[in-house]
Structure formats: structure tokens, C-alpha cells
Design goal:
The protein has strands at 5-13, 21-22, 29-30, 32-36, 45-48, 58-60, 65-69, 84-85, 90-93, 99-107. It is built from no helices and ten strands. With 108 residues, the chain is an all-beta fold. It has a four-stranded antiparallel sheet, with no helix packed on it. A four-stranded antiparallel sheet has the order 2-9-5-6, with no helix packed on it. It starts with a strand and ends with a strand.
Length: 108
């Protein structure tokens, strides 16, 4: 039985700069996610684990994006069981209320 890929999205909002929030409030396992700091953000956002900060995170300025992926899509079955839990990926921001858009691929 083959699985069907579904494209879904979510938005993580950092209410208070300096206080990291998870991309998902519940377990959300994906193989690939595209993360984009909206052009409307006032400052940069920072990606990382639960300890992420402006000093330690991957910085995305407004309008920039990054892709999280566990395996090379051309590698065939290599890495097919590896998944990223978006609950374990955090975002912090330099400015209150800045956001991070997430486009991800779920399978059913």
C-alpha cells in the first residue's frame, strides 16, 4: 500500500521575544519542512532546540527561509524511517509577535 503525501502548513508566533516556542504544540512527525520568516516580521527569528536564543540559533531575517530534511530525497529508501518532530524544533524572535511559517509534508 502506498502512502499519499499531503501538503499542510502552520504558523508559530513568538508572543514574547526571548521566549522560544515549539513549532507544534503536539507531536508532529515530518520528513521535510520549509520554514519561512514572513517579510512582515520586524526582526529576525532563530531556530533551534528548546534552548534556542539569538546567540545560539539559526538566524532567519524577514523574508528568508530554510528547509529541514532528514534524508536526501534522491537516496531512495535510505532514511525513510527518519522523521523530524516539529514539537522538538523551537523558534525565538528578536521582536514580540514575529512569526515563522511552516510548510510541511504529511503522509497518510
Amino acid at each position: 500500500m502506498s502512502s499519499k503525501a499531503l501538503v499542510k502548513s502552520l504558523v508559530a508566533t513568538v508572543a514574547t521575544a526571548g521566549v522560544a516556542v515549539p513549532l507544534s504544540g503536539t507531536d508532529l512527525y515530518v520528513r521535510k519542512a520549509q520554514l519561512r520568516a514572513p517579510a512582515s516580521n520586524s526582526g529576525a527569528v532563530f531556530l533551534g532546540d528548546s534552548t534556542v536564543s539569538a546567540a545560539s540559533g539559526l538566524k532567519l531575517a524577514a523574508g528568508e527561509y530554510e528547509t529541514l530534511q532528514v534524508a536526501d530525497p534522491d537516496a531512495g529508501d535510505a532514511g525513510k524511517d527518519l522523521l523530524i518532530n516539529l514539537k522538538d524544533v523551537y523558534v525565538d524572535a528578536a521582536t514580540n509577535g514575529d512569526k515563522l511559517g511552516v510548510l510541511y509534508y504529511a503522509y497518510e
